[in-house]
Write the structure tokens for this entry.
Amino acid sequence: MLTFSSETEDDIATIREVVTAAFGQTNEAQLVEAIRNSPNFIPELSIVAKEDGNVVGHILFSPITIEAQEQISGAGALAPLAVTPARQRQAIGTQLVQVGLSKCRNLGHSIVVVLGHPQYYRRFGFQTASKFGMQAPFPVPDEAFMVFELMPDALKNVSGIVRYPTYFDEV
């Protein structure tokens, strides 16, 4: 049976292994560590999926901003989402996204941004960010840069360039 909870100190090494295995490289695991070691880290939003006490998946949400000429709006970045390769395509990632979005909402967050596969994230309600006048700060396919409203009308009057903390560029 799967359980979902915020990461603990005991989970950190296994999270690194799961993220590295899921992506086949260490960049995303280094990003998780950079976020964890930053002042922006929200421990409740680093969520693990466990089976028999073993971490089989991980999702992380962290603060970002959306900057327009006259305003700066807060948002959350969903990055990364990882499931150990032997357990992929078994709805663990889906459950992690659902649990994570619910936790974000419960903590008062209203907007989440993701760079990912459109077919995967659209089923949760993510929409192309450019429809709301939002742009990525780097070149990405338009359909892969998406946004989700956790609260009704959260995107009303929000537009601009999404700004990630510098550690996103360093890994």
